[in-house]
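Onboarding guide, step 5: your first structure request.
Type a short instruction followed by the sequence, for example:

Predict the 3D structure of this protein.
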Amino acid sequence: RIRVPRSSPCLLCDMLYVQGHPPDTRAHRKKCSLYHAVLEAEPREDLRPFSGQFFEVSAEVSAAPPRWAKLYVQHCGRLFCREITMDSLGSPWDPEWGGHHPLLAFIAVSDDCRMQGVAVIRNPTGDHPVLAWTWIVPSMRNQGVFTRIWNMLSKRFPNFYVEGPYSAEMESYLQHRNVPVAQRCGGQYITEPGPVRFFADRIERRRP
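The system replies with structure tokens like these:
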């Protein structure tokens, strides 16, 4: 009997590939490398001027943002969509997809120059800026990163609105901050959990 190789999805990037098949392995390694880079959060010497601060990235094509920064935001959005059931949040950040998107991302940079996650503001120059979504690198959660982001946004965009929230963790945070319902917008519901769970040191497939 001929055994036909079966493809299986990657837990991280969701790519279907045949393990042990060289062409598939190479293609998967290439696609998944940026996801691993986001999670591993190695120090970047070129971010030293932003240590302990934020690197700003516009999705507006005329702003000519750095390719690496758009890729980072794109992959943070994709990883967020692996945790919750949502359409891709990374599409507007695709470097190959030039467009006019009123989005401004803030990449949090640690004191030792590691990228810790991102917060995305919709309509940043309008009368009603909105925190569209935020995602923190799992190994850096519960370390005050999001509070630092929130405090920065509060100074930059006083009385900004919050979309959703879409996760129980965000709902809990908003309650902790006593954020009024009037400051929320969009669909105010918690989405179903996504297919994976991230921990500081591992990834697990969520049980049905």
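Each response can be followed by summary notes, for example: The helical segments are 22-40, 67-83, 145-156, 168-176.
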